[in-house]
């Protein structure tokens, strides 16, 4: 991707439409959404600032609680004013992230193209086939040899040197054991051709693109909404600063993304879902062994467990990493298993009782950071 840092004071300036203007524009936007056949969203760092993650291009005197963007901080060389910043792994998806989940589930939205590497779209519940993460995802690593992807519950980017992508982990496949690399695209590096091609295919199909929280200054990403406009589709931009694509947009809304999306959802009579952490485990058991596999919604490996402790009679078996495979179990009685998680959202350990007659089972584990309660359900 190519860097294009904001340079002039005018480009850093933030604009705010009045409430009446926002209401009028949202009403028009909702009409466009209801008429569209292939509505896509294009998202930038501005949808994650309300989660406490600073963006790249906000000016030093921004109204955002996350303070100036990364480039401005570098340029100003003085401590930034910030009232809200959280560690990226602890960030809770914003109202915008959660509303997009509902818009997708209700058939309004067809695809999301994102410039963000914070992984919040996947965390919010957007399935990977409905998402093009142009610049990568800090929770994803890929095998250099067999290309197998692994999603983790920890930031896999280990080096401050942007040229180093090795994560230090190896492929789980015993026949492969290739080196794993992160998929972050730094400035000067080429985008993954599969990802950018899919994003362009979605743009070509799209008759409406809602670009939210992006200054639309980084290419080739910014060519996605441009492509929609070029093919005759409508582009609506929600951003505090002006963007180079304002002139080809059908409408520009200068307001916070969360404010706009709340009004959109209200007019569509849709609820914004409450964020919860969704995990799955697969259990395989026979008379002599027990295997517990943490998986994602597609059944692919997802290492969100820190450790698993199994009580077998009087013995306590514990494996910290790897496949969670326990041999020489009694397995004739119910087995008590204690799962420990990474705990980014303060999620406590969870005790699961595996019945003696269990052979194979998939469990859904849902945790609400609001209530602090795990909900366990069998998946059939
Ligand atoms: Zn491999």
Structure commentary:
The chain has 380 residues and is of the alpha/beta class. The protein folds into 3 domains: 220 residues, 3-Layer(aba) Sandwich (Rossmann fold); 45 residues, Rubrerythrin, domain 2; 102 residues, YEATS domain (Immunoglobulin-like). Helices cover 20% and strands 28% of the residues. It is built from 8 helices and 20 strands. It is globular. Its cofactor is Zn(2+). It comes from Stentor coeruleus. This is Regulatory protein SIR2 homolog 7.
Core attributes:
Rossmann fold, binds zinc ion, Immunoglobulin-like, single chain, alpha/beta, 380 residues, 20% helix, Rubrerythrin, domain 2, 5-stranded mixed sheet, 3 domains, 6-stranded parallel sheet
Write the layout of secondary structure elements.
Blueprint: H1 9-12, H2 19-35, E1 39-43, H3 70-76, H4 95-105, E2 109-114, H5 120-124, E3 131-133, E4 140-143, E5 149-152, E6 166-170, E7 179-182, H6 193-205, E8 208-212, H7 223-230, E9 234-238, E10 251-253, H8 257-267, E11 277-285, E12 289-295, E13 302-303, E14 305-312, E15 315-319, E16 325-327, E17 335-341, E18 350-354, E19 360-368, E20 373-379
Parallel strand pairs: 1-2, 1-8, 2-3, 5-13, 8-9, 9-10
Antiparallel strand pairs: 4-5, 4-7, 6-7, 11-12, 11-19, 12-16, 14-15, 14-17, 17-18, 19-20
This protein binds zinc ion.
């Amino acid at each position: 991707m190519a860097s294009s840092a904001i340079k002039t004071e005018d480009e850093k300036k933030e604009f705010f439409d009045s409430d009446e203007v926002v209401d009028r524009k949202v009403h028009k936007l909702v009409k466009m959404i209801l008429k569209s056949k292939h509505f896509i969203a294009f998202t930038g760092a501005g949808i994650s600032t309300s989660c406490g993650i600073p963006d790249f291009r906000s000016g030093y005197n921004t109204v955002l609680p996350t303070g100036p963007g990364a480039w401005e901080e570098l340029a100003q060389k003085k401590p930034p004013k910030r009232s809200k910043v959280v560690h990226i792994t602890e960030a809770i998806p914003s109202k915008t992230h959660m509303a997009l989940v509902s818009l997708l589930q209700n058939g309004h939205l067809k695809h999301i193209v994102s410039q963000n590497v914070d992984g919040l779209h996947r965390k919010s519940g957007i399935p990977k086939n409905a998402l093009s993460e142009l610049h990568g995802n800090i929770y994803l690593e890929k095998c250099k040899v067999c290309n197998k992807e692994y999603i983790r519950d920890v930031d896999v980017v280990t080096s401050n040197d942007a040229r180093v992508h090795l994560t230090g982990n190896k492929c789980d496949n015993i026949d492969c054991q290739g080196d794993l690399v992160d998929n972050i695209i730094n400035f000067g590096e080429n985008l993954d051709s599969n990802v950018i091609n899919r994003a362009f295919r979605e743009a070509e199909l799209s008759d409406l693109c809602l670009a939210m929280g992006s200054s639309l200054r980084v290419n080739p990403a910014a060519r996605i909404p441009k492509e929609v406009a070029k093919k005759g589709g409508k582009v609506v931009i929600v951003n505090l600063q002006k963007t180079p694509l304002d002139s080809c947009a059908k409408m520009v809304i200068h307001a916070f993304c969360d404010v706009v999306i709340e009004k959109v959802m209200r007019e569509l009579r849709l609820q914004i879902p409450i964020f919860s952490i969704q995990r799955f485990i697969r259990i395989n058991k026979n008379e002599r062994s027990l295997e517990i596999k943490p998986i994602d919604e597609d059944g692919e490996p997802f290492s969100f467990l820190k450790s698993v402790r199994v009580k077998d009679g009087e013995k306590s078996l514990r494996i910290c990493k790897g496949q969670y495979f326990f041999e020489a179990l009694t397995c004739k009685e119910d087995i008590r298993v204690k799962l420990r998680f990474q705990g980014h959202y303060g999620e406590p350990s969870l005790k699961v009782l595996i019945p003696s007659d269990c052979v194979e089972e998939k469990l859904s584990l849902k945790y609400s950071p609001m209530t602090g309660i795990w909900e366990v359900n069998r998946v059939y």
